[in-house]
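Please supply some protein, with fold tokens.
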Amino acid sequence: MLSIEPGLLIWTIITFIALVFVLRKVAWKPLLTALEQRESTIRTALDDAQLARREAQDILAENQRILAEANRESLRLIEQGRVEAERLRATMSEQSRQEAQRLIEEARREIVRERQLAIQELKSTAADLALQAATRLLHRSVTDDDHRRLVMEFLDRFPEKVEG
């Protein structure tokens, strides 16, 4: 059945060796060169990818730092706005208090002035009434000097009666 023939075996080995030699000269070097180029391309692509990854991480870290700085700045601005609003509120409150105090003082001065005017008018009216009453009581005419003297005496005593 199956038998090995030495001649065929030798020619098969010689053909195989010749084929390996020819392939080595013709195909092996181009295949190895193509594989080496492919390996180099892949290695370069991996190196580039690692470099890009590191750069992306650096950019991400920088973006996070910038975002944190922006957050701190916004918090600082908010706090500054709050402090400024509080200061403005205090200033406005103080101005309102001062304005109210000024109005109160002005009203007090006006009251004193009006009181003095009322007292003066009351004195004048009282003097006129006193003169009319005195003239009627005396049934005689009073001279201007008598009028002045009577009014002055009455006015000198009148504040004590009004204020007391």
Observations:
- The two ends are 160 Å apart (CA to CA).
- The mean pLDDT is 85.
